[in-house]
Amino acid sequence: WGPFQRRIFFVLCLTCVPCGYNILSVIFLLASPPHHCDIPPHSNLSQEWIQASIPAEPVAGQPERSSCSRYELDLVRNLSAMGASPNWLQNQSAPGSRPEGLLSNLRREGCRDGWSYSTEYFQSTVVTEFDLVCSEQWKQPLTSLVYFLGGLSGCFISGLISDRFGRKPVLFGSIAILSIFSSAVAFAPSWPVFTVLFFMLGLGQISCYIVVFVLGSEILVGSSRILFSSLGQPFVYSFSMMLLPGTAYLVRSWRHLSLIMAVPGLACIPLWWLVPESPRWLLSRGRLQEAELLLRSAALENRVEAPPVIFLPPKAEKAEAHQAESVSFLDLVKTAKIRHITLKLWLIWWFSTSVSYFGLSFSMSTLYGNLFLNYFLLTAVELPAYFASWLAARSSPRRLSFIGFCLLGALALLFIQGTMKSYPTLTMSLVLLGKFGVLAGSGVVYTYTGELSPTVIRNTAMSSCAMFSRVGSSVSPYLLELAEFNKLLPWITLGVLSLLAVLLCIFLPETFQQPLPDTIEQMPVTQWFTCPWASKTALKEEEIITKEQTPSMEIICTTCL
Question: For the Major facilitator superfamily (MFS) profile domain, which residue ranges apply (predicted)?
Answer without folding.
Answer: 76-513
